[in-house]
From TrEMBL:
This is Quinolinate synthase. It comes from Microbacterium aquimaris. Iminosuccinate binds at H103, S120, Y208, M209, N210, S229, H324, P325, E326, T341. Its EC number is 2.5.1.72. Its cofactor is [4Fe-4S] cluster. It catalyses: iminosuccinate + dihydroxyacetone phosphate = quinolinate + phosphate + 2 H2O + H(+). Belongs to the quinolinate synthase family. Type 3 subfamily. Coiled coil: none annotated. Keywords: 4Fe-4S, Cytoplasm, Iron, Iron-sulfur, Metal-binding, Pyridine nucleotide biosynthesis, Transferase. Catalyzes the condensation of iminoaspartate with dihydroxyacetone phosphate to form quinolinate. InterPro entries: NadA, NadA_sf, Quinolinate_synth_A_type3.
Length: 440
């Protein structure tokens, strides 16, 4: 499950979602993208509250979410060619002093400069391979940079090129709401540390990697564990060995899809809405629950529908539909396969015969896979070009700015997790690394 070290190579087609959006917005039908604002630089929205254009633009951003200060004009005004040259020059000057990590969902113009491309956990691990690098520039979103900070050496600076690159799903589980939820569950279940005859406590908290360090710390303090979309089943098995129930956050869909595949009935998976007493549930339902699902979701993956799958099947005989488990249950059920970004990538790489793939995940990854595998037909299930709003906030202008600052001896946008949060968060991550699938 390692991140992919990047060796520059020619690509047969233009995988740039940005170029696609520019063409759409300049063309006759701008409705082929979800927001014409995507054609502008993200600095146009840095001073405005909200996630900005893209899939999360309708989500409510928490008050106090980090904002990015104004990007200096020289970076806002530089064109793609100039930024590309400046990034390359700064990177060359910095040499081994810096490692650049690019998430699968990041724009092509940024990924092209990454030393590693992967999912959030693969990238945090890739950073571990460079203990001597002074700086780790994480071209992803806030919780990913926090995870890299948790796993890196204290002297290493983890940099997020645009502080406004949060994650609307991670923001849906706020630490105060989670603490409040735990207190209410304590009233239902009693002593949360008391074990039954099988040695199990009432609830084990499980958080998806896509959550803040504060939530990972909460989980670590309460006997819980972190999971990724690749190991969610193994982690739930670990949790069920130790607890009668699981409290799963923030993504209800990953929790539901994974638990359902393990045989947990839907009526034993109540939702916890943090804005309602007892999460909108009742004592009896919570007592009978096996998995309590936090009311969170990814707005990128929530865009995929069963109708899109039906249309793909109608128009492409033999199409292989693969979706991410952050998609709603009906979509996962209607697809041929569901799996993490790494699973999707490997499934395409392993296909020997020319195949048509309809993919339900973020458009930047789908476009890149299509460009890398011209022998296959690969397209995104969603016909509207609507990238992740927060990944979109990392533009080459911010990457050039942070790298040139490093050359000048200044660290901009450092992400640091305080020790009182970092210590228990690391415990939760270490439990995940130690969790193994049961022997077959
Ligand atoms: S794709 Fe979804 S989960 Fe991933 S960063 Fe974007 S909003 Fe968050």
């Amino acid at each position: 499950m390692a991140a992919i070290p990047v060796t520059p190579q020619p690509r047969p087609a233009d995988p740039s979602v940005d170029h696609l959006i520019q063409q759409i917005v300049a063309g006759p039908d701008a409705s082929a993208t979800c927001s014409a604002d995507l054609a502008a630089g993200p600095w146009e929205i840095d001073t405005r509250p909200g996630y900005g254009p893209g899939a999360s633009m309708g989500d409510v951003i928490p008050t106090g979410a980090p904002r990015q200060g104004e990007l200096p004009a020289e970076y806002r005004e530089a064109d793609d060619t100039e930024l590309d040259a400046r990034i390359r020059a700064a990177k060359q000057t910095l040499g081994d002093r810096v490692v650049i990590l690019g998430h699968f969902y990041q724009r092509e113009e940024v990924v092209t400069h990454a030393d590693y491309v992967g999912d959030s956990f693969q990238l945090a691990n890739a950073a571990l391979e460079h203990p001597d690098a002074e700086a780790i520039v994480f071209c992803g979103v806030h919780f990913m940079a926090e995870t890299a900070d948790l796993l890196s050496r204290p002297e290493q600076a983890v940099i997020l090129p645009n502080l406004a690159a949060g994650c609307s799903m991670a923001d849906m589980a706020d630490i105060d709401q989670v603490e409040e939820c735990w207190e209410q569950l304590e009233e239902v279940y009693g002593d949360m540390t008391a074990v039954d005859a099988d040695g199990r406590v009432p609830v084990i908290p499980v958080t998806y990697m896509n959550s803040s360090a504060a939530i990972k710390g909460f989980v670590g303090r309460h006997g819980g564990i972190v999971c990724t979309s690749s190991n969610a089943r193994t982690v739930l098995e670990w949790a069920f060995e130790r607890g009668r129930r699981v409290l799963f956050f923030p993504d209800q869909h990953l929790g539901r899809n994974t638990a359902k595949a393990m045989g947990v009935p839907l009526d034993r998976m109540p939702m916890w809405n943090p804005n309602r007493p007892l999460g909108g549930s009742d004592q009896e339902t919570l007592t009978d629950a096996r998995v309590i699902l936090w009311h969170g979701f990814c707005s990128v993956h929530r865009r995929f529908t069963v109708d899109q799958i039906d249309k793909a099947r109608a128009e492409h005989a033999g199409v292989r539909v693969i979706v991410h488990p952050e998609c709603p249950m009906a979509v996962v059920d209607a697809a041929d396969e569901a799996g993490s970004t790494d699973y999707i990538r490997k499934a395409i790489e392993a296909a020997d015969e020319p195949t048509t793939f309809a993919i339900g995940t973020e458009i930047n990854l789908v476009q890149r896979l299509a460009a890398e595998h011209p022998q296959h037909t690969i397209f995104c299930l969603d016909p509207v070009v609507c990238p992740c709003s927060t990944m979109y906030r990392i533009h080459p202008g911010y990457l050039a700015w942070t790298l040139e600052a490093l050359v000048a001896g200044t660290v901009e946008n450092r992400i640091t997790v305080p020790a009182d949060v970092a210590d228990p968060a690391r415990v939760a991550l270490e439990r995940m690394l130690a969790a193994k699938p049961p022997a077959a």
